[in-house]
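Support case: benzoic acid complex. Customer-provided input:
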Amino acid sequence: MKWNAELYDQKHAFVYQYGESVLELLDAQPGERILDLGCGTGYLTQQINDLGADVVGIDYSPEMIQKAKETYPEVSFSVANASKFSFTEPFDAVFSNAALHWVQDHDSMMRCVYNNLKPGGRFVAEMGGKGNVQQLIAATKQVLLKYGYSKQAEIMLWRFPGLGEYTSELESHGFRVTFALHFDRPTALQDGDEGVAKWIAMFGEQYFEGVPSEQKQLMLKEITELLRPTYYKDGIWYSDYKRLRFIAFKEL
Ligand code: BEZ
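Agent response - structure generated as follows:
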C-alpha cells in the first residue's frame, strides 16, 4: 500500500497526539537505545530523541520514511519490514504506536522484536484492539456488498487482537507481560461530514480497488450515513477506536 505522508500529517495528527500518552508508558531514559517500530512520519521518534535517547525509527513505507527524514534530519530512520528486521546492536526498548495492526505475520514480528532486545529489555506498544473500528468496517462491507463488490468485502486489512490472545502470544515468544489494557477511545475525526470518507481514503483505500471514482464517492456517502447514528455526537464525528496497550519484558 502506498501512503500519502502529507495527508497523514495534516489530517490524522490524532494518531501521534494520542501516541504521546503511550510515550509516557515507554518512559524513555537519556542514553537508552530505542527502536520505534512503524514510526510513520517520525513525530514520536523525534519526541523520543528529544528525551535524550538514542532512537532509530523504522517503517515499511518508503513515503513515510522519506517524509520523516526530511522533517527530522537529525534522527535516524530507515525502511524495514516489522517481521524481518535485524540490527547488530540490540535495543533497551522497542516502542510502537498505531502500527502493529498492519503487521501480517505477528509471529515473526514478535520473534524479531525479541531477538533485537537486550535481555531485560521492554516492548511497549499500543495498537487497535478487538472491536476496533468495528462499526466502520461493518458499514463499509455492507455498502460494498450492496454494490456487488463481494471480493472487496472479504478483505481483512488489519488484525485487532483481544487482550488475552495477544498477551498469550507475547508470553509464548518469551516475554513477561507486566501491563496490558484494552479500552474504548472514541476518536474525533477531522473535516466534519467528510471525516469518515477521509479516514477511509487514508487507511482503507484497498476496499475500493476497482471501484469507479464517482461510484466510490456515492458509496462513501452511504457509509457515512450508516454511521451517523453512532458516530455523530454534538457536531463531531467520532470513530469507534478500541486500543490495546501493553508492556512486555524480554526475560533475563
Ligand atoms: C488504528 O489506529 O486503530 C487504525 C489506524 C488505521 C487503520 C486501522 C486502524
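The chain has one domain: 5-250.

Case will auto-close in a few days if no follow-up is received.
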